[in-house]
Amino acid sequence: MRHSLSKASIKMALPPIHHHQFRRALPYYSTLLLQEYLHRLQLARRKAGKQYPDLLLLLQHRPVYTAGRRQTDTELQDERKRLEARGADFVHTQRGGELTYHGPGQIVGYPLLDLGRSVPPVAVRDYICLMQKTLKLHLREAHNIDSSSTDLTGVFLAPDAKIASIGVQIRHRLTTHGFAMNITNQPLAWFEDVVACGLEGVKATTVSAALGTDVSLRDEVPGLVRRFGQVYGRDMVPSIWTAIPRSAMLSSM
Asked: Which of 52, 63, 135, 235 is deepest in the core (most CB within 10 A)?
């Protein structure tokens, strides 16, 4: 006789997600190396039949422009020179999406999850849709900001105003990269130098711009973490220092 699990019982069957917020802006490349280290650790422990945590890293980056895997080094050569002269780093990554900016004033989230923990495994598109739903829910509940409906990936407040980007990489059902949501107005001038995500006519906007007042980025994190767990059906544990080696964390800072 077959039995179906309720959403509540599925949530209880899954381990919690460990989350950590870095207190200062970090170089993009260092956090990329950290993600790769954690991905290898999760994969190795899974293959060995050992326990391993799901993680959510929350942070701000130092100014950096990043390109996605569909773009080539040759076509990006001139852009790299131009944007590095602007004073930002430039990193070519293996995430989805195209050229975009990360820096102070954004909340960047890197979920490192095993999509195969659920039965059946979470599909890639569903994983991205849940991430998008999390960000929209946070904007609505925390700030009474409604998002615009669109078939594009990310979160828009209008067809020509984008407030959050999503770009992920999934290997062996393990996720890396994630989302970036503009909170303060600091990123806006940097976005003016690029066609972010290849979307002509679309400008970046922020929570501060939508509200017409300053917003504290640090105050955003607790609610965002809570809603991430709510949407993904997982408990959230407010520390990852016991989940991964301290040396790996410090080497990324």
From this structure: 135
